[in-house]
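Structure ticket #2291
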Amino acid sequence: MVFLVLKFGFTNNNMFLQPKRTKYKKLKKVYLTKLLATSCSKLQFGNFGIKVLESTRLTAKQIESVRQTVNRQLNRKGKVWVRVFPHIPVTSKPTENRMGKGKGSVDYWCAPIKAGTVLFEVGGNVSDVKIKEALKKGCSKLQVRTRIISKYNVK
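Resolution: structure written out below.
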């Protein structure tokens, strides 16, 4: 770890998702559109998944929290695919600061999510009941309405 600090000049204490490199350090604010997702709206890898019903912005911390919850419920069996990645930096300035003096520093990373996007997929050699239970607990970590979907048309 000391070698990383000396060579690159930074440390990464948190294990949240974030890009390794970006062209620009800070971006303009991205406003979400109320459109439906077209590209990531179906399952591609697993048998079950979490689909978002509203458009929102998910932080890297929220995505990591859902991933950890699902993995713990499955006892680290099976495979969990994360279909979204937080690539937008969100900046903030300290409270009670005077106006001016530039844009604030990067506070956290987020991913803009359109309605209908599949966030997580789960598959592997695990029973369907256990997968549904794990995804239900994972959905409770999110602040938006979600639905558990499956490749099979069984509810």
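Closing remark: The longest strand covers residues 105-113.
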